[in-house]
């Protein structure tokens, strides 16, 4: 769930927008470069974007009795690098902000930062660390995607705590309250996102092993298996 | 296990969806007789926390377009999911056909 329209003070709204802009610009540059060099990867880029579209539209029930939705950014971050997901995430957030009054234009910068920057970078980093630690492929994907989902919402909690510190306990007390809203709700969603990302990745391995090898997602021996 | 992996994973997702629906029961209506809504969005809950923490805070901008009613809002959410799922389906169909065609040409080459 994104920060709602108008629910960030002006300074914060501007600050997060400024923070997100270079990531989106660099992401567009990397996507353009990649498509120019490897036009055959366009289809996979579409799959990554489509996956984010589907997952962030699925509002799922959680054990806390509230609803939230996954983000779907982990898959694209693993395939195309985290920067590429910034503009893709922005498209999804714009769609929801303009047509659905979900999230908002003034909070767009902050929401891009959590969903389309922190999440993807976390996914890419977790995937590399897991693979370096010899974790098998599937579990690495699961870890990266669900970690990215969870950290996206922890970032949202931190952004809100930063904007609305607790009158008595300051940032820490406020962060505890906001993460109580987001974190526990998000746990089942993060697991679902991890599982769904593995499902799509399995299909990609089956049909596009060479591309995945080129993207350094699969090792040579795994691509041939 | 490898062969049924995706089916097992999807069953896992379904269970994760079903368990909350089954576990969370609608609470007894309060003294004012108003029904307490369950499965509200977590962003609504966050809004409640903000209002509790900073009662004097006034949102300074409003959404440009508000979907006129919950039904229309679910229409747009469904549209978003359909666009994404449609593309993934298209890719899957293409990929599967391509794999099949490759296989048959290889067989022809061997003959």
Explain how this protein is built.
Chain A is an all-alpha fold and 225 residues long. Helix content of chain A is 75%, strand content 2%. Chain A has a two-stranded antiparallel ribbon. Chain A is globular and about 60 Å long. Chain B is mainly α and 111 residues long. Chain B is built from three helices and one strand. The longest helix of chain B has 41 residues. The mean pLDDT of chain B is 83. At the A-B interface, α2, β1, β2, α4 and α6 of A face α1, β1, α2 and α3 of B.
Compile the SSE list and pairings.
The complex is a heterodimer of chains A (about 220) and B (about 110).
Chain A: H1 10-37, H2 42-57, E1 60-61, E2 66-68, H3 73-80, H4 85-100, H5 108-132, H6 137-163, H7 170-207, H8 209-214, H9 220-224
Antiparallel strand pairs in A: 1-2
Helix pairs in contact in A: 1-4, 1-5, 2-3, 2-4, 3-5, 3-6, 4-5, 5-6, 6-7
Chain B: H1 5-23, E1 40-41, H2 42-53, H3 70-110
């Amino acid at each position: 769930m994104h920060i709602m329209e108008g629910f960030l003070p002006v300074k914060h709204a501007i600050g997060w927008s400024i923070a997100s802009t270079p990531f989106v610009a660099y992401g567009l540059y990397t996507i353009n470069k990649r498509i120019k060099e490897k036009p055959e990867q366009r289809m996979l880029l579409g799959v990554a974007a489509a996956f984010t579209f589907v997952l962030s539209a699925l509002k799922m029930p959680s054990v806390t009795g509230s609803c939230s939705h996954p983000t779907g950014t982990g898959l694209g971050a693993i395939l195309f690098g985290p920067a590429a997901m910034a503009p893709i995430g922005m498209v999804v957030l714009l769609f929801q902000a303009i047509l659905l009054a979900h999230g908002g234009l003034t909070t767009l910068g902050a929401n891009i930062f959590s969903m389309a920057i922190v999440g993807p970078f976390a996914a890419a980093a977790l995937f590399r660390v897991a693979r370096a630690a010899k974790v098998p492929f599937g579990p690495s994907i699961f870890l990266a995607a669900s970690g990215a989902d969870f950290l996206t919402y922890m970032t949202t909690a931190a952004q809100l705590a930063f904007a609305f510190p607790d009158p008595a306990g300051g940032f820490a007390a406020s962060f505890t309250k906001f993460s109580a809203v987001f974190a526990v709700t998000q746990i089942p969603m993060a697991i679902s996102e991890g599982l769904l990302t593995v499902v799509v990745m399995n299909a990609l391995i089956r049909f596009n092993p060479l591309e995945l090898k080129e993207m350094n997602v699969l090792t040579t021996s795994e691509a041939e298996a | 296990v490898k062969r049924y992996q995706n089916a097992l994973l999807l069953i896992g997702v379904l269970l994760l969806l079903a368990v909350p629906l089954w576990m969370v029961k609608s609470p007894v209506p309060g003294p004012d007789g108003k029904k307490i809504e369950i499965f509200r969005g977590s962003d609504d809950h966050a809004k409640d926390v903000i209002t509790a923490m900073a009662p004097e805070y006034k949102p300074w901008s409003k959404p440009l377009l508000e979907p006129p009613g919950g039904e229309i809002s679910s229409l747009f959410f469904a549209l978003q999911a359909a666009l994404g799922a449609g593309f993934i389906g298209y890719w899957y169909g293409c990929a599967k056909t391509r794999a099949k065609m490759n296989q048959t040409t290889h067989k022809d080459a061997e003959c």
